[in-house]
């Protein structure tokens, strides 16, 4: 089997796929695409992904974009073990229920807060408008409340039962993004705090490996903030 993963570890779904493939001991080739250097806009990469985004897989010449589509495909191809992506119809539907919800339910708000609070000021040298930022933070916290209460507050260790699935890994990687902006999603949400620790432990050491860049940025920002 030949499997290539085009990714950037600053990208949440890229990290999720990278960690997943590492943790299941999949023999894949990571092909890093530096978004900060605009490598996704090159002609070479545009020929691979016409949408100029990450992640992308090339599986024996079959190129596929979009993280959820990739997860579903790799499950059908028996690359992802059944323990992480169930085959049984109802159990699989529960995982996919979360995968469908998380795009607008969690990812959108965490990613936009990160972009407005951290990424845009770094790229354009202008701090975020306080009123606008407060709105993004409020919407993110509403999403975190929903995730904390309605997905995790059901008496199980993970999103869909007492064993982790790809749903947990995808969610955990999304929540790492606002940490680079100085916001810890677990600080005021007990269910997230307990669950997140379990997800990290389950997928380590590859979880930490996939977040090495993220953690360096968090450490650097923390050091800067402590000097102000």
TrEMBL record:
Keywords: Cytoplasm, Transferase. PROSITE patterns: GST_CTER, GST_NTER. GO terms for biological process: glutathione metabolic process. GO terms for molecular function: glutathione transferase activity. It is found in: Cytoplasm. It is an enzyme of class 2 (transferase). It comes from the Eukaryota. Its EC number is 2.5.1.18. SUPFAM superfamilies: GST C-terminal domain-like (SSF47616), Thioredoxin-like (SSF52833). Residues 88-224 form the GST C-terminal domain. GO terms for cellular component: cytoplasm. The keyword Repeat does not apply. Its main location: cytoplasm. Residues 1-82 form the GST N-terminal domain. Pfam families: GST_C (PF00043), GST_N (PF02798). The keyword Transferase applies. Belongs to the GST superfamily. Theta family. PANTHER family: GH16740P-RELATED (PTHR43917:SF8), PTHR43917. This is Glutathione-S-transferase theta class. It comes from Spodoptera littoralis. The lineage of its organism: Eukaryota, Metazoa, Ecdysozoa, Arthropoda, Hexapoda.
């Amino acid at each position: 089997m030949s499997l290539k993963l085009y990714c950037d570890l600053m990208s949440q779904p890229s990290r999720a796929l990278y960690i997943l493939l590492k943790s299941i001991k999949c023999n894949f080739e990571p092909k890093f695409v530096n978004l900060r250097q605009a490598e996704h806009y090159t002609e070479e990469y545009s020929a691979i992904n016409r949408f100029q985004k990450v992640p992308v897989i090339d599986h024996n010449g079959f190129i596929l974009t979009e993280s959820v589509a990739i997860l579903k495909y790799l499950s059908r191809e028996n690359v992802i073990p059944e323990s992480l992506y169930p085959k049984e119809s109802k159990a699989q539907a529960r995982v996919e229920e979360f995968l469908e919800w998380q795009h607008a339910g969690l990812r959108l708000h965490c990613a936009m807060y990160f972009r407005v609070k951290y990424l845009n000021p770094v790229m354009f040298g202008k701090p975020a408008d306080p009123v606008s930022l407060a709105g993004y933070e409020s919407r993110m916290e509403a999403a975190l409340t929903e995730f904390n209460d309605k997905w995790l507050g059901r008496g199980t260790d993970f999103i869909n039962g007492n064993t982790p699935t790809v749903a947990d890994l995808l969610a955990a990687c999304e929540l790492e993004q606002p940490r680079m902006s100085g916001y810890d999603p677990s600080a005021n949400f007990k269910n997230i705090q307990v669950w997140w620790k379990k997800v990290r432990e389950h997928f380590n050491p590859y979880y930490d490996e996939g977040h090495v860049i993220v953690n360096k940025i968090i450490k650097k920002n923390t050091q800067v903030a402590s000097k102000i």
